[in-house]
Structure formats: C-alpha cells, structure tokens
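ARCHIVE RECORD
Type: protein–small molecule complex
Small molecule: magnesium ion
Source of inputs: curated submission
Record status: active
Notes field left blank by submitter.
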Amino acid sequence: TFRRSEIDEDLWEEVEEALIGADVGVESTMDITAHLRKAVKTEGIKDASDLWDLLGQEVSRRISGSATEILNQEGKVFYLVVGVNGTGKTTSVAKIARKLSLSGNKVLLAAGDTYRAAAIEQLKIWGERLGVDVIAHQRDANPSAVLFDAIAAAKAREVDTLIADTSGRLHTYENLMGELEKMRRVAERELDGYADLKVLLVIDATTGQNGLIQAKQFAAAVEVDAIILTKLDGTAKGGIVISICDQMDIPIAFTGVGEGMDDLEPFDPALFAEALIG
Amino acid sequence: ILSDRLQQTFKRLKGHGKVTEAHLDEAMKELRLALLEADVNFKVVKQFTSKVKERALGAEVMKSLTPAQQIIKVVREELEALMGGQAAPLSLSPSPPTVMMVVGLQGAGKTTTCAKLAAHYKKQGKRTSVIAADMQRPAAVEQLKQLGSDWDFEVYSGSEDPVTIAKNGLEHAKSHGHAVVIIDTAGRLHIDDELMSELENMRALKPHHVLLVVDAMTGQESVNLAVAFDERVGLDGVILTKMDGDARGGAALSIAQVTGKPIRYVSAGEKPDSLDIFHPDRMAQRILG
Ligand SMILES: Nc1nc2c(ncn2[C@@H]2O[C@H](COP(=O)(O)OP(=O)(O)OP(=O)(O)O)[C@@H](O)[C@H]2O)c(=O)[nH]1
Ligand SMILES: Nc1nc2c(ncn2[C@@H]2O[C@H](COP(=O)(O)OP(=O)(O)OP(=O)(O)O)[C@@H](O)[C@H]2O)c(=O)[nH]1
Ligand SMILES: [Mg+2]
Ligand SMILES: [Mg+2]
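STRUCTURE (tokenized, with ligand):
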C-alpha cells in the first residue's frame, strides 16, 4: 500500500518508483501510469487505496499464466528448456518433472547440456532423486544427438513427457543460438508427431531490462511457448515479465521459489501483481 | 543513445540562445531515463543526476557552445570516478597463502570465476587451489573437480559442513605451500539469515579478499544484495560476470555507489582466459549505451 492517502504528484512518484524498483522498466511504467492517470480522471478516484487496487489490476491484466495447460497435459509433450547461463534451467527441469510425475505422467529427461562441467552429473542426481530416467551421452557430445536418442527412447518407452535440459547460452552468440535452432529442428523431425514440442524460456527474476532482449532473441531463434520465472523467493520482483507479456504475448507458466524439487508454483497474475507492487 | 538525445534536447529547447537551468533539468530527465534503462538503481540515479546537475551549473556547461557534449563529459567523469578511477589487480599477501572467498547469489558465476582466478594464478606460476565449499548444489564439487582437471588447478574437497571444509582446506593449502587459495561458496539469498550467518562464520577464517560475484544483467535489486553482503560479510571487491552478453550493466554503478567497494574483475565468457581487469572508462561507455 502507499505511504500517502491522497492522490497527488508525490503519490504518482511513489507509483513510478514502486514499478521502476520492481524492474518493470521505463516504457511499461510510463504506460501503466498513463493508464492510471486517465482512469483516476474518468472514474473520479480520490482515495490512494483505490488507486492501489487499480494499480494491481492494471499490472495483473498485462500478464497471463499458462500453468494449467502444462499441468493438465492431454497429449504427449516434449519440453525444450532454454535460457541464458545460470538462470535455473536444470533445477526447473527437475521441478517440472516432479510436478508431472506426481500427477501420474511417465516422464523422461534428456541431458542436453553436454558442454558445461558437471551439467550431466547435476541432472543425473536430480533424476535419481525424482525416480526419473535421464538419457545422456558423454561431455562434449553433440546435443542434437542426445535429443535424437532421448526421443527414440521416449517413443520406445511410450513416455508422456520428455523434458530436455540445454546449456546456458547468451543470445549474443550467433553460433550458440544456431545450435539451439538446430536442436529444435532435429527434435521436431524425430518427434514426427509423437508429441507436441514446447519451448520453455527460463528467466531469472533478478534480471533487469536485458530480460526483454533475452525473450526477443530466444523467441526469434526457437519460438517460446511459455516462461519460467525463477528465484522469486529472493527480493527481486521480476517486473520485466510485464514488458515481455505486453510486447510479445508470451505467458508465464511457473515461478521458481527455491532450490528444492517442490519449489515451483503455477503463475498467478493477481498474486504476482500484488507481490510486485508490495 | 544518450549523447544524441541530449543534442536533440538542447537543440529543441535553447535553439541558439543561452543555456538555462530549465534546459539542464530537461537534460537531467534524459540522463535519468538512460540510466534507468541501463539498470542503474533508481535511488542511485537520483543521487547521480543531482551531482551531475550541480557540476553542470558551472561555466563549463552553461557557457559552452556545445552543452550536450559538455554534459556527456561531466557524466563520463562522474561515472568513472564513482566506479573506481583506476584498474587494479588483487594484491597478494607477503605471507602466503593469499586467501580469497567468493560469494554471491545463486547462478551468478562464482564457481566458474573461482576456476578462472585459479587458472590465472597458476599461469603466473603460483601454486593455487580452490576449496569446494558448496555442499548444497547437486554436483557442485564435481563441477570444480572437472574445471580443475580442464584448467590445471587443485581442488580441495571434503564431506563436512562448508565452514569446516574451508578451515581444513586452508590448513591443507598452508601445509602444501600454496600461494593462493580460493574458497567457492554455495549461492545464497541475501535474505537467508542462516546461510548469511554461515558466510559470517567462514569470514572468521580471515580471508584476504572477499569478492562478491554479480551477474551483469542484475536489475534494481543490485543495491539491496550488495549492501546486505557487505554489511553481513564485509566485501573487499566485486566481480561482474556475463559481460559478454548485451546487458548494459548499470548494476556496476549502483553497487559502486552504495558500497564504495571496487569492481576488480570482469568476466566475459566461459573459458579460462575470459577474466579481465575492470576498466571504469569502458564500463561508463557501456552504461551510457
Ligand atoms: N533461490 C532459488 N535458487 C534457484 C531457483 N532456481 C534455481 N536456483 C539455483 O540457481 C542456481 C543455478 O541453477 P541451475 O539450475 O544450475 O541453472 P542453469 O540455468 O541450469 O545454469 P547453466 O546450465 O549453467 O546455464 C543453483 O544454485 C540453483 O539451486 C529458485 O527458484 N530459487
Ligand atoms: N557467457 C558467460 N557465462 C558465464 C560467465 N561466468 C559464468 N558463466 C556461466 O554461468 C553459469 C553459472 O555459473 P556458475 O559458476 O555455475 O555459477 P555459480 O554462481 O557458481 O552458481 P551456484 O553455485 O549455483 O550459485 C554457467 O553456465 C557458467 O558457465 C561469463 O562471464 N560469461
Ligand atoms: Mg544447467
Ligand atoms: Mg557454484
């Protein structure tokens, strides 16, 4: 809630700072405050607490959740989990596997990060903890080859969900984005209709304005179906997703709220908006 | 980019007339937007722009025929002064081993940075080990062992709690004549009281350098996290990672402003040679876009 009770220029500054401080970014902040100023005029709002509610609604209407689609999986699905380095992809793969296997899905994992030290071992440990198999090659193997084998195994075992971890990559590397594009093409070809292919982009809530560029670049390379916003158990608010949803219409599927296998929550726009404005 | 925006602002406002304080205020608005877009914390932006305006009210800008350029000059100077003035590598202790403790949020790049530092000192002919004190992340110790094998440095590991492992690792380094020992710690939230206390206990082992590793794409929370780590653990320096991305890196300015601690290194890649001394002038240029 606001510190002040009347709607004056100081309050508008407070609104701006709440949004900017939450990494909403200049453009979206200006857009939101413009909408609010108009609403205050046309609806004759006098009370700051009413403005507060309006702010929450304005934020909430700009973002959408898609957890139900994933959790109520109908056909078979192949998830390709992507994103820049260190955002929480491998841990999120484990968390999603956890949710889906708890609800009765037969899950298989693919250790698609064949580059980073101990990436394969890290995913294998999660597989053991989850009771889920992991298809892996050796370090420095071709990641597309891992996907090839994982999809073949998924078909042979009639798996419901195959989740592929990939190595962290900065979108500034054309060759790495090219490698990701190739992985998607290989997966589509090998799946051959066996399962829907969905790309999940993992974004760290501590990320500032670069998060929007990440979403644009990854979407351009492999098309992104939904976002997983991690590390919301910290103090960062993840406001950059407002710009992402606004400009690119990509829903948020889940939020990561810790380092354990159960620390994944379905994205709720209203709760997120409430937490964001503080 | 900012210099163009300022040129436009002055052209539009003053035409061929004198520069007024009102014009300066408009210019400071442009500066504020540019810094916020670069992820500089909004409170730091407030302080910074008022400092720039204060200097800009002097003759160098007000009497200049090219006020936009003069303001950019002032901005650059203030940015560079804030972020450390000159580049300086970490000092090594006259009585080895020099102990470095590396801390930060989850996924910032600590383990990789520890490995790069180790490779760097090894290349200088200094016997170096890294203590694998992250007992929480799956395969964290294995990650360091593989990096140690890839990049040729020793890894000390154990099965006790992190502080005991660090203590034992330091004794091992001393008795084996290591010149440099680097402690890799588990990523943690600055609001996790228990894990921050663990770091305080590790700090009691008296490292020469406590380095905060920060992801260059960090947004507004850079201030809160840096202040928390500095207040609880005490920082000697900061290392900015993933600078090979295109994040503007405003977190560097935010952290420099609120902690006063120097940024020592910049990491720009995943290979051992991608650790460079921090250059304030290059960072200023990057933040200004
Ligand atoms: N607090 C918190 N930590 C998280 C969360 N998600 C992941 N982490 C931690 O963030 C760190 C990085 O997670 P990873 O899963 O290895 O990230 P990644 O994207 O796979 O990293 P790379 O493969 O190296 O690019 C680990 O220490 C995780 O435990 C979260 O929601 N909250
Ligand atoms: N492109 C790029 N990647 C980096 C850089 N520094 C680290 N990384 C990558 O970032 C990811 C995370 O690095 P880690 O060293 O595992 O991070 P960490 O801080 O030890 O993570 P936790 O121990 O889980 O907290 C890995 O994929 C690294 O290879 C860098 O400067 N540039
Ligand atoms: Mg990973
Ligand atoms: Mg680590």
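CURATOR ANNOTATION: Residues A 85-86, 116, 168, 170; B 104, 106-112, 134, 137, 140, 186-187, 241-242, 244, 267-270 surround guanosine-5'-triphosphate (ligand 2) (CB under 6 Å).
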